[in-house]
Amino acid sequence: MELRLSVCVLLLFCAAENSNGGKILVWYSEASHWINMKPLLETLVDRGHQVTVLVPSTSLFMNSSEPSRFQYEPFDVDVSFEDLEKIFETIIHFFMYEMDFMNPFEIYVTFYDLMKNNKNITFKFLDGVVKSEPIMKKLKEGNYDLLFADPIYSGGDLTADILGIPLVLSLCFSLGNNLERMCGQLPAPPSFVPGAASKLTDKMDFSERLSNVLFYALQDVMMEQILWKEIDKYYSEIRGTPTSACELMGKADIWLMRTYWDFDFPRPLLPNFKFVGGIHCKPAKPLPEEMEEFVQSSGDAGIVVFSLGSMVKNVSTEKANMIASALAQLPQKVLWRYSGQKPETLGSNTRLYNWIPQNDLLGHPKTKAFITHGGANGIYEAIYHGVPMVGIPMFGDQPDNMVHMEAKGAAVTVKFNFMTTESLRDAVNMVINNKSYKENAMRLSKIHHDRPMSPRDEAVFWIEFTMRNKGAKHLKVQAHELTWYQYHSLDVLAFLLIIDLLLIFILFKSCSFCFKRCCSSYRHVTKRKIN
Amino acid sequence: MELRLSVCVLLLFCAAENSNGGKILVWYSEASHWINMKPLLETLVDRGHQVTVLVPSTSLFMNSSEPSRFQYEPFDVDVSFEDLEKIFETIIHFFMYEMDFMNPFEIYVTFYDLMKNNKNITFKFLDGVVKSEPIMKKLKEGNYDLLFADPIYSGGDLTADILGIPLVLSLCFSLGNNLERMCGQLPAPPSFVPGAASKLTDKMDFSERLSNVLFYALQDVMMEQILWKEIDKYYSEIRGTPTSACELMGKADIWLMRTYWDFDFPRPLLPNFKFVGGIHCKPAKPLPEEMEEFVQSSGDAGIVVFSLGSMVKNVSTEKANMIASALAQLPQKVLWRYSGQKPETLGSNTRLYNWIPQNDLLGHPKTKAFITHGGANGIYEAIYHGVPMVGIPMFGDQPDNMVHMEAKGAAVTVKFNFMTTESLRDAVNMVINNKSYKENAMRLSKIHHDRPMSPRDEAVFWIEFTMRNKGAKHLKVQAHELTWYQYHSLDVLAFLLIIDLLLIFILFKSCSFCFKRCCSSYRHVTKRKIN
After folding, report:
1. For A203-257, what is each residue's pLDDT tens digit?
2. Same domain membership, residue B166 and residue B22
3. Which residues of chain A are within 8 Å of residue B9 when distances are taken between CB atoms?
């Protein structure tokens, strides 16, 4: 009781300090990144803060004319909707239909080319803000207390620096943990911290540790070539002085990492890295009446929820028929988010929806399993509600996310390009009938809920902390001021090695000198004796 | 409001789960370690847990016949009170009166001898528990849910392992962070993490980084010689199988580190390391009437609080007179905890006390400065209340603690053996009259208070978490399963080096072969031409 009371008093104290509310500028993002961000921003508005979101004129998911409790700061970008859509489609097509039939080298080269070719889009979006005088004038006049950004969308760090305001980042992961390691100085020993998207776990044998070391190295080379070289040039041009984008990102006061130890493998962290995985999760609300009726009609068998996420709406007719056949063989009722043509093999137990209230369905007591593409948002909703998963990962972090869930015993994965009616059906039956999957999902759910604060409350606390204190410098390690060789004490080790070699050299020379003297005396004596 | 409510609901949920209370076994400790532990144990009793403390028959600070809300489990040790007191006095005398006049090598050797000679005491205390059949029988029958220990007092890990119960450690620091690094796998790059007791800060130039690397190495060698070799032998004898004490300590579920970023320099941490510095701090209570009158008589000048801690009660007459002279020259009233003979030079502004309510005095609005030996408990009370300090550090972590406070601009240090009336007086005047010291103390106080949970609540949460979940395995990094060379990927790097060398060798041999073939053809052609 005392514990609860004192926490409440503490938070009351903090809330009181913030009673006037702060002014938060939010950097634009896209797709699941934006979906994930919204509930946190809603909470910030609830707590009396003014939230202003930068919205590009071309976006797949952001819309500045949508009624909202946020203020919008729209800006023009020289990219058409069709071009943007085409880019996303090309990337998704590569991951869904090409990658599985390539060797690792081809994958790496193709991915490298895809990223490199599309990097200009990043700059066109960034132009819309930092090269636009009216926008920058407005932002300066806005007197914001903080800039909040997902660093996957470049430029938040540059803008925060120009405006001279604190920066809070929110990030699920970067390829090979490149941003966290190189810019945030987060230690990630490759022996037990698998690189994000490496599909490795924290339990690695020699060959896996070797792969992980190479994966880190390759990602660092790729990021240097794709991102840092070009973006440093761009930032330097804007600032009029040599500027390192990674150093600017390193100035962030707080990194809100959207993972936790229910999903991620435990690893070293830093005081300004807060692990708030599941930041968007919330209790389930009642379902629409028609949907609730369908769910209740499942009886004891229960339901299966199926969605391939916000980016993939349709699959090929052949694939859709194969999936529908598998679902038709399940004793459960199935709710499938699918906006393509109705598959011919669709069973009477399966209903198609253009959109489903995914979180409310996952939190429904009748839900037995979740068939998912393995996006982090969906996985976290399943963890929150303790639902075992069947993963059909396709792109980005999805395959890696499913590796995490499989390693923790809460999921089975099937490969999109190689799955059959039987393998999909068997996978769903497995996670429903083998009790260990539900037990492990419930164990992860317990870990998720049993922490001192909910992830969203923790994120809100540190955002408000940064505003109250105009930064969070006392949480930043001194490593940011060191070069890479100083960080690893290589200069010290080199110095000690030189001293060692010098001592050995002196010892050798001394011994050699003594030996010569001895020999010379001996020869002298022997010679005299002979004479 | 929503934030506060949801935190309350979360904690209510956790509290409800613990409504029956757990059974906590507390390992014995001594001096400030025991003083620090008590308020946390009181809170655990308040929350309905049964707390049983192992108390040795010989102790300077623990007393099993003292009325208390804890249960005591007394055990016999074959050490007399006089012997124990003598050991502490010898150590304190070395630090207070000898060390300042020795070179670093002499200090190291003397300290090494002191520790080595006194290690048998550790085993005699440990004998009293693990070699005592009646005690071990009682502990086994006690069905404890958790063992709580300060690992500076060896054996808690062994006993938890024998009893098969989870282990929570509470630790301020170990010399050169040896326990945290070697057993807890806490990353501590020597380039920006100064070894505990090294008197370095996190801002180090080349020579300081060199010192830190050597300091870490020397501490590791010393700990291996003093502690690990002998204790591994002892543990192996008890367990009847080769046992590594460091590995047993590494099994701890949670490490409650009694520091935070108000006091310590920010550094890498691990998910099962919780930084709860100031765990014992609490708001000030009203002073005894006579003391309050004296404090009020100080007027606007205010008061200075002076204590050399629980271990040092008296100093030499000469030193006492020198200190009293300095205090007499202050415009403030001074409350000095001192049980020696009244110094001749004692001013009318100074009163001596056998004991002072230190926390209540530090929290008094009239308090202007705190003259302290630099113990972590006292420093945390000063941080809690935002009081600038003058340090007269003497032994253990005290000099290092004061380096931290000086680096953060909240203290001035004077050297016990070299201070004069003037230097002590000037130091006190400095921290009172130069506003930056008070401002920095208040800044640290703000950092201390402005966190999601109070340190004691956080410690209680993780102790209860460990009991509820019978451990906290999901927070433990996989590094515990790696050898040191695997951890640092040295086997992987060696493999890559060999592959590189092989490739170079093959390349060299191929070139050499081609070159020879070319030369041979050339010679052949030339020869034929000549012929």
Report:
1. 999 999 999 999 999 999 988 888 888 999 999 999 999 999 999 999 999 999 9
2. yes
3. none
Predicted pLDDT at B19: 45
Q: Give yes or no for A489 touching B (CB within 8 A).
A: yes
Using CB atoms, pick whichever of A11, A210, A489 lies closest to residue B191. Answer: A489
Question: Which structural domain, as residue segments, surrounds residue A253?
Answer: 23-79+115-280+452-481
In Å, how far is B361's CA from the nearest CA of chain A? Answer: 23
Interface membership of A269 toward B (CB under 8 Å): yes
The verdict on A273 and A126 lying in the same domain is yes
- Mean pLDDT per 10-residue interval, chain B, length 531 residues: 41 45 94 89 95 92 83 92 85 82 83 79 93 96 97 95 97 92 96 94 97 94 87 95 96 97 97 95 95 96 91 80 96 94 94 94 97 94 98 90 97 94 97 98 97 96 96 96 96 95 91 82 65 56
| Three-state SS at B160 | helix
Q: What is the CATH classification number for the domain harbouring B133?
A: 3.40.50.2000
The answer to whether residues B304 and B349 belong to one domain is yes
Residues 6+ away with beta carbon under 8 Å from B431? B369, B388, B389, B390, B411, B412, B437, B438
Residue A477 shares a structural domain with residue A512: no
Q: Total domain count for chain B?
A: 3
- Cα torsion angle, A134, A136, A139, A143, sign: negative
Q: Are residues B388 and B401 in the same domain?
A: yes
Instruction: For residue A10, tell me if it sits in a domain.
Output: no
Domain shared by A189 and A303, yes or no: no
- How many Cβ contacts (< 8 angstroms) between chains A and B? 200
Residues B384 and B504 in one domain: no
Tokens 């990658």, residue located: A99
Nearest chain B Cα distance for residue A149, angstroms: 22
The verdict on residue A2 lying in a domain is: no
Query: Residues of A with CB below 8 A from B4's CB?
Result: 8, 11-12, 15
- Assess if residue A3 is contained within a domain: no
Q: Do B2 and A47 touch (CB under 8 A)?
A: yes
Residue A294: other Cβ atoms inside 10 A? 17
Buried b (16+ CB within 10 A) or exposed e, B439-474: ebbbbbbebbbbbbbbbbbbbbbbbbbbbbbebbeb
The answer as to whether B104 is a domain residue is: no
Closest CB to A268: pick one of B190, B270, B446. B270
Interface pTM, i.e. ipTM? 0.90
In chain B, what residues touch A202 (CB-CB under 8 Å)? 477-478
Among the listed residues A340, A341, A332, the one whose alpha carbon sits nearest the alpha carbon of residue A361: A332
Reading the block at residue A186, the tokens are 């987060």
Give the residue from A105, A258, A260 showing the smallest Cα distance to A173.
A258
* Contact B446/A at CB under 8 A: yes
Kindly state whether residues B315 and B431 are assigned to the same domain. yes
Contacts of A206 in chain B (CB under 8 A): 491-492, 495
